[in-house]
Amino acid sequence: MNDYLLPIADGLPARDSGEWVKEKLFYVKRYIDVFEVAMRGKNWRRRIFIDLFSGPGKCVIRDTNEHLLGSPLISLQTQYPFTDYYFGDLDQANIDTLQQRAANCAVSQANIHFLVGDANSKVNDVIADIRRFDKQYISGILPCLNLAFLDPEGLELEWETVAQLAKMNRMDLIIHYSQNGLTRNLDKCYATEKDTIVDKFFGDRKWRDVYKTALNRRESIGIHRALIDYYKSKLSDLGYVVIKDSDEIAREPLIRNTQKNAPLYRLIFASKHPLGNN
Ligand SMILES: C[S@@+](CC[C@H](N)C(=O)[O-])C[C@H]1O[C@@H](n2cnc3c(N)ncnc32)[C@H](O)[C@@H]1O
Fold it and tell me: N or C: which end of the chain has fewer CB within 10 A?
């Protein structure tokens, strides 16, 4: 196999990462694998993977120079690939690099779409395509089956983007919840009446009440528990099944900085189908 598709240096840029990225990629690969195996037998018109914060396709662990496949190259090389892919990034150079790598994979190039720009506006291009594919009723053929991985660096993912994706018939979501990004911004954003990055992340201002109540309880762990539960209640309002597992690490794995043991982010998995819980 070509170096571009292997977890090794290939002369192209890779995303500088900490050791903890391995844990994130483990969960993403696992979700994709289970999703594909469970779903591929049905008559979906298309099975679509959407990665609106895709990066260049590979990561490099800064301390060890170990190279890893990032989410786009993992999704392109699974046992049962999706039929269509949408990869987006704000940075043109990342998309150019990813395109060069993806050109070597077995998936038809016509079915891999690249988008440069803010995920919160580019999502509309993806939605327009899915709507077009789903528009016509075809007897015996199910609508598109979609999985979106939303993996920003901090708080760049706006709630409205999640809500747009959620309007599609079948759209599983893996959402990067930036615990670290919120911790750094909550006080500052709470203190202003203006619309803030945190208001955009939660899609409204009710997080302020949730935050205030949790703060009054004076338990730092409880703040994120309360905010994640609030975020998940909004997903539930959009028709998503809320995972009931009593083990919170199993529900929303917490990725920590492996050197400082500091919490970085959580992954929230959301499906409209009860099977997603598995
Ligand atoms: C955490 S990285 C993604 C890593 C990737 N999922 C992987 O597994 O290799 C986040 C990416 O989002 C991009 N980004 C940041 N803000 C963005 C925005 N508003 N819209 C789209 N992409 C953005 C960054 O350039 C970066 O490549």
Answer: N
Tell me the per-residue pLDDT of 23-68, one tens digit each, with 9 for 90 and over.
999 999 999 999 999 998 999 999 999 999 999 999 999 999 999 9
**Residue 93's domain is classified under what CATH number?**
3.40.50.150
Domain encompassing residue 231: 3-277
d(CA 260, CA 256): 8
Instruction: Tell me the DSSP string of 46-91.
Output: -EEEEETT-TTSEEEETTT--EEE-HHHHHHTSSS--SEEEEEES-
Alpha-carbon distance 162 to 24, whole Å? 20
Q: Which residues of 33-46 are buried (b: 16+ CB within 10 A; e: fewer)?
A: eebbeebeeeebeb
CA–centroid distance, residue 71 to ligand 1 (Å): 11
For the chain, give the mean pLDDT. Answer: 94
Residues with CB under 6 A from ligand 1: 15, 52-55, 59, 70-71, 88-91, 94, 118-119, 151-153, 156
By alpha-carbon position, which residue is closest to atom 9 of ligand 1? 70
Domain count, the chain: 1
